Amino acid sequence: MDEEKKIERLRKIIDDSSYTVILSGSGMMAECGYMGMKTPEKAYEIENRYGVSPEDIFTSVYYNNRPAEFFKFYRSEVLQGDVDTSDTFRVAARMEKIGKLKCIITGNIYGYPQKAGCKNVIDLHGNIHRNICPHCGRKYPLEYIKTAKKVPLCQDCSRVIRPQVALFGEMMDSQLMTRATWEIENADTLILLGTTLDSEVFSKYIKYFEGTNLVIIHKEHHHSDSRADLVIWDEPRNVFTKLGY
């Protein structure tokens, strides 16, 4: 089946679906113009620049013990992912508005779906736009973190502000996990964008899917693709912009 017919099939699947959920993976960061720090090239570059791996510096231990170094890295490397969204998410927002999409679940921390106008989004790993003082609970916008000279401190109690993102090795938010599981259990169509069925982030949720159509859209072939009902090997934006929503 050629890609055009696959897109036609996808459109019919979505139109016939009563509950469609999207899983947005790390491949969507690249589509939005950002190379994630876990990619081999980026990880190598970071280790050369800071003398420590991303897995070591992007941790609560580093945040607690070396906050100045943590925030230098956070502003210079992590917040570089605060780029524009993708046409994929703009189409998804229109789908949501007309009732064709119920929820987007993402492991990214940059709020790409929200930038496009999506409302029902589950950020499994948090979001860079949420920043809170762990002592008094005062909330701060992303711009406050970006413009702080060294360590962003609470204006009320002078404690170090905590970005509400999951650092490497931390436990996931149980409420978000429960919400994500519920959405997938209730979906009759599950669409994976820029990720695979063996995803480190999503595989534990995908096992709860008991719906009719499992769809994968990503650039590279993967051995787990054969378990899906429909696979389209392309950038998701090339597919979604042809759906007509």
Automatic annotation (TrEMBL):
The active site is at H125. Zn(2+) binds at C133, C136, C154, C157. Its EC number is 2.3.1.286. InterPro entries: DHS-like_NAD/FAD-binding_dom, NAD-dep_sirtuin_deacylases, Sirtuin, Sirtuin_cat_small_dom_sf, Ssirtuin_cat_dom. It holds the Pfam family SIR2. Residues 1-245 form the Deacetylase sirtuin-type domain. Keywords: Metal-binding, NAD, Transferase, Zinc. PANTHER family: NAD-DEPENDENT PROTEIN DEACYLASE (PTHR11085:SF4), NAD-DEPENDENT PROTEIN DEACYLASE SIRTUIN-5, MITOCHONDRIAL-RELATED (PTHR11085). This is protein acetyllysine N-acetyltransferase. It comes from Blautia hominis.
